[in-house]
Amino acid sequence: MDKPTHLIEFETMLLGRHLNLHNPRPRRDEYQLDRSAYTLLSRISMGGPMSIGELSDAFGLNVSTLHRQTSAMLNSGLVERIPDPDGGMARKFAITAEGDRRLEAERSYNVRALGSVMADWAPEDVEAFAGWLKRFNTDIERLAGRPWPRPGNSGTAEANDSE
After folding, report:
1. Which of 28, 50, 79, 142 measures 20 to 30 Å from 120, CA to CA?
2. Exposed (0-12), middle (13-18) or buried (19+): which is 40, by Cβ within 10 Å?
3. Which domains, from first to last, does the chain contain?
């Protein structure tokens, strides 16, 4: 029997729709992070300061797109540009205390919202679902050659494979 990947395609399309709705919830305040800032801040928070080139490699996005996104984050005080801590020529983006505060507030809100969606799920079902999502994401990352750092590891492909 062929794998029913069409079922996964349909469900991920719906998941994307649910996650990408412009107003799935009322705006809490003007400080709510947009999706690109949330993702970029998460990556910088997990991996440490990154140059525009490193961000481009990590996300597979062109530099001009990242310049727009990082400029908006700079103007909002979420990141700052610092000299490369390793002595390289390129300046790097580091998360500020304000960026860290807002990232954690956004993450806490998202975790609470997921808790509402999964209120009737058994803890082992939530854990199993998280495991399947991790497997799905790490397989995508492996195929793309762009591993994403995760809590408890360095973000390398080897570290992701060892879990």
Report:
1. 28
2. buried
3. 31-117 (1.10.10.10), 120-163 (no CATH)
One-letter amino acid identity for 3? K
Residue type, 111: V
Q: Can you count the helices (H) and strands (E) in the chain?
A: 7, 2
Question: Which residue type occupies 136?
Answer: F
Cα-based angle 32, 37, 41 (whole degrees, multiple of 5): 110
- Residues 66-75 have pLDDT tens digits of 999 999 999 9
Q: What is the pLDDT of residues 142-151, one digit of tens each?
A: 999 999 999 8
Q: Which two tokens stand for residue 82?
A: 């610092």
CA distance 22 to 74: 23
Distance of alpha carbon 10 from alpha carbon 150, whole angstroms: 27
Angle at which helices 52-59 and 63-75 cross, to 10°? 120
